[in-house]
Amino acid sequence: MNNMNRIRNTGIICMTAAIIWIMAISIEYPLHLQPPGSGTIYYLNQAMFLVANIGYVIGILGLMWSHAAGSGWFGKIALGLFGLGWIIIIVASILGLFTGNVDSPLFPLGGLSATLGCLLSGIAIVAAKRWQGWQRWSVLTYAIYYWAALFLPLAIASQEPNQITETIWGFAWLLIGLALLTSSRNLEVVAV
pTM for this structure? Predict the structure, then answer.
């Protein structure tokens, strides 16, 4: 498989992950399945979130493989921080399912890494100018939404996200996946 096909596939996986996330959110809130929970439906719902999170990491790999953030150290570190944060969140989620501990210090550690990484990645992608049009702004749009609607309200006012804000967050990931899918047609990709 050539690199453009691999990037295109990461876009499809990221978009699928976003749809799974949106579906999981549409189940979680009406059925009150927020952690900690129990029962088959709770664990199936958490598995949906886990699959979505893995898909997001694959989307971040696509951003790396496409060199969307350029070839310099800033873009590589930013995307690495973004991906590392999501990997830590995945590990914390798996441990939480087995231990029932949803207050693991891994969650804020992964969250802070992903939060900072997404903003720096969005800046690096815009500055690198490897992507054109709306695709170039997709990750920064995601980052600004995340900071404004999810992170800052929680950090400043202890305001938890709700079904609407988390659903829109899923659509922001869908935008990143679509950017990967469509930009792969127009990129001269450097072989990895």
Answer: 0.92
